[in-house]
Design a protein that fits this description.
It is a multi-pass membrane protein. Belongs to the formate dehydrogenase gamma subunit family. Its cofactor is heme. It is found in: Cell membrane. It is a single chain. The protein is mainly α. The protein has two domains: 63 residues, no CATH class; 180 residues, Up-down Bundle (Fumarate Reductase Cytochrome B subunit). It contains 13 helices and two strands, in the order H-H-H-H-H-E-H-H-H-H-H-H-E-H-H. The longest helix is centred in the N-terminal third of the chain and has 35 residues. The protein starts with a helix and ends in a 7-residue tail after the last helix. The N terminus is likely disordered.
C-alpha cells in the first residue's frame, strides 16, 4: 500500500520518477545504495536546478518546472536596482519640490482674487479627473507598500499587522486598477483634443511656464504645455502600466512565466515614473499655486487666476469662439 501511495504522489508532483528507488526496494521501506544513487543523480538534480521541466499529466510542460532559475534574477533586480533607484528618485524629487517651494514660494494671483468666477471643468470632467486621480492614489500607496513596505513599515508595525495590511492592500490595488482604467478612457475622450500641440505651447516653454519668474504669464489655451505633458504621460504610461498589470492579474493568459517577470519589472518601474510626475502635479494643484485646487473641486476658478494662467482660454469662453493664435 505504501508503495502505491508514494507512486501516486510522485506522479501528482510531476517528479518524473517512473520507479522510485524506495518503491523498488526488497523490503518496501529502505532503498539500496545503488537505488539511492539513481534517485539522487547529480545530472538529474542539475537538470532540475537549470529549469528542466518534469511531467504532470494534463498540464502544460512549463508547470512541471520545479526550480525556475530566472526567478532569482527577477528577485535580485526587483529588490536591488529597482528598489534602490526608485527610492532615491522618490526622495530626490520630494526634496527638489520642497526646495522649489521655499525658493520660489507659493505662486499667488498678482492682483489678488477678483471675486468673480468662471467655469473651468464641468461635472463629468471632474468625475473623470477623480476616477483617475483617486484610484491612482490608492494604487500608488498600495504599490509602494508592496515595493518598500517590508523594509520600512514591517519593522514599525510588526509582521502580523503588516501581513494583514499587505493582504488588504493587494485587493485594493487590484480593484482600483479597473477604476483607473475607466478613468483613463473618460479623460482621454474628454480632453485629448484640448491637449494637442498649439502655437501657444512654444511661448509657454520659452517663458518657463511662468513658474520661474514672478510677473511672467505666457498665454495658454485651456491646457498649457506643462499640463499637456502631464496628460499624455498619464495616458501613455497609464496604458502601459494597466496592460502589464492585467497580464499579472490574469497569469498565463497572454504571457508565460518569464514574460510575466519582465512585465512585473516594467510595471513597477513605470508606476514609479508616474508617481514622480504626479508629485509635481499635486504640488502645483494644492500648496504650490493659489486658486488652482477649486478647478477640480467646485469646477470654478477665479477669473483673475484664469486670466493669468489661461488667458487665451478665457477669451474663447467670453467670446464664445476660439481665438486665433497671434
Amino acid at each position: 500500500m505504501s508503495r502505491t501511495i508514494l507512486a501516486i504522489l510522485a506522479i501528482v508532483l510531476g517528479l518524473g520518477v517512473t520507479e522510485p528507488a524506495w518503491a523498488a526496494s526488497s523490503d518496501g521501506d529502505i532503498p539500496t545504495a545503488a537505488q539511492s544513487d539513481r534517485v539522487t543523480s547529480p545530472d538529474s538534480w542539475r537538470a532540475i536546478r537549470q529549469g528542466e521541466a518534469g511531467y504532470i499529466g494534463g498540464q502544460p510542460a512549463t508547470r512541471g518546472v520545479l526550480i525556475q532559475s530566472e526567478g532569482e534574477t527577477w528577485r535580485n533586480v526587483r529588490n536591488g536596482k529597482l528598489a534602490v533607484y526608485a527610492g532615491w528618485l522618490l526622495i530626490g524629487v520630494t526634496l527638489a519640490i520642497t526646495a522649489f517651494y521655499f525658493i520660489r514660494g507659493k505662486i499667488m494671483m498678482e492682483g489678488g482674487p477678483s471675486g468673480q468666477t468662471i467655469l473651468r471643468f464641468t461635472k463629468i470632467e471632474r468625475i473623470g479627473h477623480w476616477l483617475t486621480a483617486g484610484s491612482f492614489l490608492v494604487l500608488g500607496a498600495t504599490g509602494l507598500n508592496l515595493l518598500f513596505g517590508r523594509w520600512i513599515i514591517e519593522p514599525i508595525i510588526g509582521k502580523t499587522l503588516f501581513s494583514w495590511l499587505s493582504w488588504a492592500g493587494k485587493w485594493l490595488h487590484n480593484i482600483s486598477g479597473f477604476v483607473f482604467m475607466a478613468g483613463l478612457v473618460v479623460i482621454f475622450y474628454l480632453w485629448a483634443r484640448d491637449n494637442l500641440w498649439d502655437r501657444y505651447d512654444w511661448g509657454w516653454i520659452k517663458g518657463g511656464g511662468g513658474l520661474l519668474k514672478k510677473g511672467v504669464h505666457p498665454p495658454a489655451a485651456k491646457f498649457n504645455f506643462g499640463q499637456k505633458t502631464q496628460f499624455w504621460m498619464v495616458i501613455v504610461v497609464g496604458a502601459l502600466v494597466s496592460s502589464t498589470g492585467l497580464n499579472l492579474l490574469f497569469p498565463f493568459t497572454l504571457a508565460d512565466l518569464h514574460a510575466m517577470q519582465v512585465m512585473h519589472l516594467i510595471h513597477a518601474a513605470l508606476a514609479v515614473v508616474m508617481i514622480l510626475f504626479i508629485l509635481g502635479h499635486i504640488y502645483i494643484g494644492t500648496i504650490g499655486m493659489e486658486g488652482a485646487s477649486t478647478a477640480v473641486t467646485t469646477g470654478y476658478v477665479d477669473r483673475e487666476w484664469a486670466r493669468e494662467h489661461h488667458a487665451v482660454w478665457v477669451e474663447e469662453v467670453e467670446k464664445g469662439e476660439p481665438k486665433a493664435a497671434e
